Amino acid sequence: MDSSARSSKVHKEAVTLRAVLLVFTGSLLLLLLLASISLSLSSFRDYISGQLADHAQDGATALGMSLSHAIDGSDPVASSSLIDAAFDSSRYLSVQYLDTAGETVAARVEPLGSFGVPRWFMKLADIPLTEGQAEVTRGWRLLGSVRVVSDPQKAYQDLWDITLGLVAINALVGGLGLMALYLILTRTLSPLRELEAQAQAISRRDFTRRVTITSTRELNRVTRAMNQMSDDLGVLFEGQGRLIQHLRQLNNEDPVTGLASRTAFDQRLRVEVESEERAAPGGLLLFQLSDFSEFNQRFGRDTADELLASVAAVVRDFELRHAGVFAGRRMGAEIAVYMPGTGMADNVHWSNELIHAVDGLYSDAAVPLDVTVYGGVAQAGEGMTIGDLLSAADEAMRQAQAEGVTGCHSRDPSAAGHHGAETWRRMITEALESQTVGIWQQPVMRRDGKNVAFYQVFSRIRCDDDWIRAGVYVPIAERFGLMPDIDLLVIDKALEVLTQEPERQLALAVGQTSVADPSFREALIGRLEQEPSLRERLWVGVSEQSIHHHRKPALALALALKKLGVGMVVDHFGVGGVPFTYLQGMPIRALRFDHSFVHNIARHNDNRFYLEQVTAIAHGVGIQVFATGVETAGEWEALQAMGVDGAMGYHLGRPKRVDGD
After folding, report:
1. What is the pLDDT of residues 155-190, one digit of tens each?
2. Using alpha carbons only, what angle is made at residue 292 by residues 289 and 298, rounded to the nearest 5 degrees?
3. What is the pTM for the complete model shown?
4. N or C: which end of the chain has fewer CB within 10 A?
């Protein structure tokens, strides 16, 4: 679980400030209520006890006087009549007339009955039953004594009624007080909720949220400070993003066309052709605009630059329609286009398609000049170097130039040993139908070189007795819209691995057509929703080209993954042509530099500086940084020195199959 997920969990478990204040105030009011009731009841109880004692004493005195003077106290019958009359006429619990020996002469006693007051309250109140006494005399002779105990029933009833009244009044006052406090706190602390939302937005690199609610002076100051900090961070991030974009343009883009510069194109092409990890079949097209120098002289440099920019737009449209294709301007009016995973027949077909599209644009702009566009395409093969491939493509281009008409020549038109597009479609479709899609994993090492951050998952398809790498068949699968099915199959296999290995974390990349396909996103999210215990150990990679060409679907996928706790990784970072500021509004856990930046990085100071700056900025906004394509110890040491969080490559670990022998 990443830091953002842990932070979100802590926030959900934490008690709000308003709740703390309400609980504290409510507890205080409850204590005051209990204290008030206790003191009031204690005072009233003492008062009632005194009244009962006086009542009993008055009754005893009156009876004593009556027995001493009004009647003959020595007459038991007369005494009993007097006591009965006194007992019935007033509220007494007992009235006793005792002789000097302590023997009862006459008495009336009645137990305390039930009268609507709870027994627990009577035990709690426990009003003392004070006994009133008086002597009975005849002249100077003592006849006995009278003992009277008042009935506390009315006292308990009054005490109970007063208690209920006190509780009701205090509860009403306390409830109204708590309600008023709730409203006051809600109004006073409302900026805090907005400030919390603003802080969470800042953690997501969203610096556009503002707090406008006013409250107390202190909170208003905090609000203004937070708004100012958000503004400053937004300006800082945008400035850093523009700086990174400017550095990328200086290092990697041609200023006129916006295509890759010659150096950047050659670096990326070298990885595709010569790298042990990435090398795969593909075709290189070189084409030129004929008589461009004459066009420049006739129409001016500005018009010539506009023409090159228009040609670049046609090339970018070609890149968009053919996944994985990348292009660059070499010099003058010469453009290079690399088509990965293609055979010679497809290379020639697509090259002619592109060249004729450019020719139509150039011919219209160059009227009345008679111009052509000529190109040459060469097939990348095993063991070739970038120099061999460029020489072969240049030789084919010169052959086309010699003919003097728009068209494309190839170095080896027979293209022996390479499959055509339809053959590839059939092979991939058969692999899907027969489920002969295997997955391999490669460790992504932490910067310490000892611990594994996660394992990157790659797919391969079975063809005859060989496993064909993703770098070979994926470009074809993208063109034919087969990647969503492949990606879903790989995801199912990856979830099976996570089930079998509970400590492992896996990362897998999804294709451009998968990102753009709503049904794929729905199926992916549906699978992940059913596996809550597994999805937090899964990373999903989306190429920067996918974000560039499918911004809204990519954002929707990123938000859905974040909601499920699944981290999203931006793959092939740096070659997608996307402004760096897209990281600000997209919930991304990590980015991974493209191979072309890592290859021989120790000898490319511009790439090294670019990676260092991006790493620092990404870390500043909570994004992890990884690299790929590490094939030498020197490359790994350079990346470690730059502070990347981890990397993968053949130097750190080779892919191994995980779903079979």
Report:
1. 888 888 888 888 888 888 888 888 888 888 877 777
2. 145
3. 0.65
4. C
